[in-house]
C-alpha cells in the first residue's frame, strides 16, 4: 500500500468524500481503516453541524 497515495504540497486541497472515493477507489470503511492505521489523512472538520 506504500506509494498508493500521492503527497504533493502543490496540489493540497480539501475533498469531499465522493471525490475521495472516485480518486482512490476506496469505500468509506476502507478509508477509516487506513486512517486508524495512520496510512490515510484524517478528515478535517469545517464547522459545527446543527440539526
Question: Could you estimate the helical fraction of the residues in percent?
Answer: 25-40%
- Basic shape: globular
Class per helix and strand makeup: mainly alpha
If you average the pLDDT, what whole number results?
83
- Report the sheet with the most strands, covering strand number, pairing sense and barrel closure: none
Provide a brief overview of the structure.
The protein has helices at residues 17-24, 28-36. It is mainly α and 51 residues long.
Describe this structure in words.
This protein has 51 residues and is an all-alpha fold. Helix content is 33%, strand content 0%. It has two helices and no strands. The chain has helices at 17-24, 28-36. The N and C termini lie far apart (38 Å). The mean pLDDT is 83.
